[in-house]
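Ticket opened by: R.M.
Priority: normal
Category: complex prediction / small molecule

The reporter submitted a protein together with acetyl coenzyme *A and asked that the result be attached to this ticket for the collaborator who will pick it up next week. Submitted input follows.
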Amino acid sequence: MIIITKGVAQLTEIKKGLQDVIALETRISCIDGEKGILKYRNFDINELVNLSYDSVSYLLLNGDIPNNTELDDFSSKLKNEREINENLIQTIKTCNFNIEAMDALRTAVSHMSHCDLDLNDISHDANIRKAIKLIARFPTIVASFSRIKTGYNPLSPDYNLSHGANFLYMLSGEKPDELEAKVMEKDLILTAEHELNASTFSSRVTASTLSDLHSAIISGLDTLKGPLHGGARMAVMNMLDEVSSSNDAEQYVMDLIQNNQKIMGFGHRVYKTYDPRSNIYKDLAKKLAENKGDSTLYNIAERIEDTVIQELVEKQNKPIYPNADFYSGVIYKYLGLHPKLATSVFAIGRVSGWIAHCLEQYSDNRLIRPRARSI
Ligand code: ACO
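Result attached by the on-call engineer:
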């Protein structure tokens, strides 16, 4: 909190990590962390998850759910921009293939900015044109990186498939079954937006300097990568690899707790109860397990969750519930995604939210510039 006295800033209370600090007003989403409610533009996430990613993306950018004509128009614009050109593929090929797809995605967005004739134009129209390209091409970039990394040629997008289904197709070359396609689409919707999380804040800070949209998105990518934020999804997948059965899961969690280590995919700065996305993810993970006729992984995850609730919530009275990264990590394993893709798949969903926040920031800008107390 800052009190200005005769032009001199006096810092009063410091909230470490800016916990609970209200930094700005937004119409894009709201969270009730006590009740476990999440809304994008006043629509509950439990309703939105039944729409398409294109609809939700439109909602975030434009403020309302599209009618059929608006949706057709928006979807066809996105589909027409899915393809990436040979130059961008060559840039992706220069990436070190031991890295996560996130690092390649950042390089690719930087490449896209060099090719953008409107690069420094931050008008609404220019930003919407850029938004369509960014949202449309994130899946193609990640899938191309993955295919090149595993010795295959990148695939062209399939225009008949949804945003999520096309991503799975471009990864493997096989069309996903109905459930897999639905789950991927829902994952992208659940990931699309989450108020003033760390990566969105980064994007808005960059936009507030009146830097360009690509730069703001690169800030978001770099912040999302960390294991306390979107990188937790990869950490969850790695954790699941270390536990071979649900019988081992309890001891695994107990060892982490005894060693004062965090259990990845649990805890949240805002939710003090179940994250509403986590409940949806859990249900989807169960459906995938049943569809595949193998619930081993799901049972391990559920045992991890039960042990965390028993040990941290019930015995230690800490609000450490599964967050959106826990059961999404389970889902990615059922979908056959490599852990090094996990955070970039998160970014494929979140880019719409970042852009919506940047548009909001540009539309009523003031430089975001807090103070520090010198010690
Ligand atoms: N496992 C065990 N203990 C935990 C966990 C966890 N996952 N998360 C928090 N705690 C404990 C801390 O040890 C601390 O205990 P103490 O008071 O006895 O020292 C207390 O809960 C508060 O933890 P902080 O880290 O201070 O809480 P903060 O609000 O800063 O952290 C965060 C939130 C970063 C998400 C944290 O819960 C965490 O590190 N979780 C694991 C990483 C993760 O899953 N990140 C994804 C977040 S969701 C997202 O970005 C999509």
